[in-house]
Amino acid sequence: MPSLGADMEAGRLVEWMIAPGDTVHRGDVVAAVETQKGAIEIEVFQDGTVQELLADLGQELPVGAPLAVILGEGEAPSEAVPTPKPAPGAAPKPEQTTLTPEPEAAKQPVGQPVPPPTPPAAPEPTPTVPEAARKPAAQPVPPVAPATPGALRISPAARALAAERGVDLASLKGSGPGGAILYADVEHAAKPATQKTSSPLAEMRKAIAAAMTRSKQTIPHFYLSETIDVDPAIAFLEARNADLPPAERVLLGALFIRATVLAAQQVPAINGHYTDEAGFKPSDMVNPGIAIALRGGGLVAPALRDASGMTLDETMAGMRDLVTRARAGRLRASEMTQGTITISSLGETGAESMTGVIFPPQVAIVGIGAPHLRPWVVEGAVVPRHVVTLTLSADHRVSDGRVAAKFIAAFEELMQKPEAL
Amino acid sequence: MTSSDKIRLDRAHVLDLLGHMIRIRRFEDKCAEMYTQEKIRGFLHLYDGEEAIAAGVIPLLTEKDRIVATYREHGHALVRGVPMTGVMAEMYGKRSGCSGGRGGSMHLFDAERNFYGGNAIVGGGLPLAGGLALADRMMGTGGVTACFFGEGAVAEGEFHETMNLAELWDLPVLFVCENNGYAMGTALARSESQTDIHAKAAAYGVESQVVDGMNVVEVERAARRALASMRETGRPVLLECRTYRFRAHSMFDAQLYRDKAEIEEWRSKGPIVRFQGWLLENGLIHDSDVADLTAKIDAEIAEAVAFAEAAEWESVEDLTTHVLGPQPEPPAPTQPSGETVEITYREAVKQGIRDAMLRDERVFMMGEDVGAYGGCYAVSKGLMAEFGEDRIRDTPLSESGFTGAGIGAAAAGMRPIVELMTVNFSLLALDQIMNTAATIRHMSGGQFGVPVVIRMATGAGKQLAAQHSHSLEGWYGHIPGLKVLAPATVEDARGMLWTALQDPDPVLIFENVMLYNRTGMLDTAAGAVDITRAAVRRAGKDLSLITYGGSLWKTLEAAEELAKDGIEAEVIDLRSLRPLDDETIMASVAKTRRAVIVDEGWKTGSISAEIAARIMEQAFWSLDGPVGRVCSAEVPIPYPKHLEDASIPQVPAIVAAARGQMGR
């Protein structure tokens, strides 16, 4: 069970997309997991053949629990295939790959979308369960801790307290002899009272709240706004979309993404990640996180990976895909963590301006209000024009007003020549 | 020959004698019948043919005299006056039986009539009888104890030990050997080099005589003479009554060991047929007398059967009543004076004994070398000079004999302290401790208790090798009916004894040999201490170290070591191994969630295993890990120091076990 964010302790397996014997390649989506942030697709980071599925659908599994065994090319199937029943932890051999947290995706998050939270300094999502404890968590715990070496050991006192307080033992790291989970471990884990009954939506709101609070508490935000004439863009889109079916039309939002990506390329100081340990690291790629409102509330901001080389149509297609999958609850883990700068556009919803809260560890968010028809001065005369108000929220630890102004100027200029986007 | 020797064979007396015998015979015929109807179960040993002995001896005893009988004792109980209803109900196993239904045919008891059973360990009744007589002698009651036993018992050491003690100490015991020629199915000549039993007694200087056990007048005459002599001299007498049992040993006996002709020959000279015939021939009685007698007896038997049939069963809820006597309140803690003196454990034990001797004249101590020698471990040095040879009583090396004597004396009202030199020797007294002391209260339906205290040394460390060094106190902890103490501190060494002497039940006190020279500070006002609770000797939160006796000090030392590593161990001194103070143990384990038991006994089947099991039963859900144990290596304790040290729990092993619990 991969860690999809530092706040994630466990996930519920809701779909297998592979079966034993299937060939998989790095990047393939192999399973879907429901988390407190919604359903997320799990990618595999290895090429190989699926030897065995270890987890059953519907199981609530702690981060670090093996989900499947995948044999690399030339690897022999292990005799001691880990079955989740008696002592699954004993199983995965070093040469085998298990779907455990992937360092690339989890240890060094390359981007974070706006609402789904990650702390500014993403803590090491080292599996919190000892090697011995890596087993499907929702397995009914045997009445007595198995004597098998390597099996999950839970003291009776720990078991009793966990039952009383509703603590998931499999998510704990044992501090006792042989990694046994002791009373004190459960006591420690039980302190922040777990809330099992709230809805996924409430969970998401809670996660957003936590991330936003952290952001506002730790990031010294500053804001620059500019009103931008979008008539050229609207005219361009009307002409371009004139004879196309709705599915092929390009939306204003896609132009905003293109403009953000290209402007960010010019101003690297607002594109990247800031962590307490490493300070600011500008990103070579621009992975724009696109804030997507979900039906029923909540927000996600999956990223388009390496969007600078995309055409407008590709950008539009990518955007559509993300929206569709976000609303279907089928985003991929990497998409949730790769964002380097976020764009939040209110579209037609009316408000004039939007001042966003930066999603850590990113350092900037572009907020764009709804287009409004306003008096506009063109060559000394007042004319009606469609304008939007752009507000850049930026991290003062990384950038300053000058840098921000440079980004806004670049964005505005790009929006005046939409055909070049 | 005094006047009491003479038998007046008047009509009333001969009818009494005949009546006793016919009553026994007809009662037992009914018992056999009821047995075949499954009303009576277990073993049923019939007295058929031997009735003249009980009938001849028992009516001569006074009310204060005592009787110890065997498992073939229906006749003795009936002649002594135990109501037939109670005897029959007992055989039915009913609540209103004379032993509350708990004893059955082999264990008839009646405290009111000083009828001490009903003892089914062949030979086991003799030391008990010796002890009852010892009490009578020490208390000066003038009472005697009649001890009945079969000739099979003379092969047991307990017979010889008791013969010796009785003669040595002038114990007023009338030993009545009912020699019916067969120990179960083994003829006397098959099992004894010397078949003249009276000669065996004579070898100990016990006055003895052969009596025709088939002739009630002869038996009475001999018994009358013996009792008269005993009441005069206080010395024991043995009557070897030669008799024959017409029926099988017990109901399930094919009698392959003897001919029918032999039985028939004896039957023809049976005690009833002979006596009745003689009385009729001589016109002392008439046929109608026999008919009247028989009718009366049959009516009594019918009433007894009806009574037993109608009687209620003991309720299962009362199963464990009478295992222990009424439990006394623990002594009130003494107010410390604040003034303490340094004292050795040995001296503390001695002070406890001396204190008890001064406070209660019923208290006396006996054992091997406790008197002139001053005690093997010098515990009683000087006490004989202070209290005299009667109350500090040297014994022969007869562990069963003198332990049984202590048990008998306690049952008769004394408060004996029996010292066994070392726990290994106590095994020679195990029959008396287990089959009599621990058992008699329950077996008698709560009528008899044994408030004896038995002290002994235990444990290794003195290079005394494999027959003087073991720690078997855990074994004794297995036995219901006993209390088992292990004082580790000078306070307990001094204070447990008095409390133990107030207890209605047998209390065993185990003194670890390595503690005698150990000193401790004792309050000058120290007195009796509670013997029911364990003590927390050191408080801690990380793990519980549960121990007792000699291992306490090693465990405290280990706790000190552990404290250097920041591990705070709680040390529990069990103090009592039976009963175990579960409450204190579980409270500690619930707090620390980890336990290591330190026990100088062997691990297998030990008290440490019992404690571990109880923790599983009662505190499993409090545990953070498996219960650990540090016990003796499973070897007979060897002689060389380094091997002996390696055999028993030592500080490093305790520290290691504790660290293991903590995962360090």
TrEMBL record, chain B:
GO terms for biological process: pyruvate decarboxylation to acetyl-CoA. GO terms for molecular function: pyruvate dehydrogenase (acetyl-transferring) activity. Its cofactor is thiamine diphosphate. Gene3D superfamilies: 3.40.50.920, 3.40.50.970. SUPFAM superfamilies: Thiamin diphosphate-binding fold (THDP-binding), TK C-terminal domain-like. The keyword Oxidoreductase applies. InterPro entries: DH_E1 (IPR001017), Pyrv_DH_E1_asu_subgrp-y (IPR017597), THDP-binding (IPR029061), Transketo_C/PFOR_II (IPR009014), Transketolase-like_Pyr-bd (IPR005475), Transketolase_C (IPR033248). Pfam families: E1_dh, Transket_pyr, Transketolase_C. It is an enzyme of class 1 (oxidoreductase). Its EC number is 1.2.4.1. It catalyses: N(6)-[(R)-lipoyl]-L-lysyl-[protein] + pyruvate + H(+) = N(6)-[(R)-S(8)-acetyldihydrolipoyl]-L-lysyl-[protein] + CO2. Heterodimer of an alpha and a beta chain. E1 component of the 2-oxoglutarate dehydrogenase (OGDH) complex which catalyzes the decarboxylation of 2-oxoglutarate, the first step in the conversion of 2-oxoglutarate to succinyl-CoA and CO(2). This is Pyruvate dehydrogenase E1 component subunit alpha. The lineage of its organism: Bacteria, Pseudomonadati, Pseudomonadota, Alphaproteobacteria, Rhodobacterales.
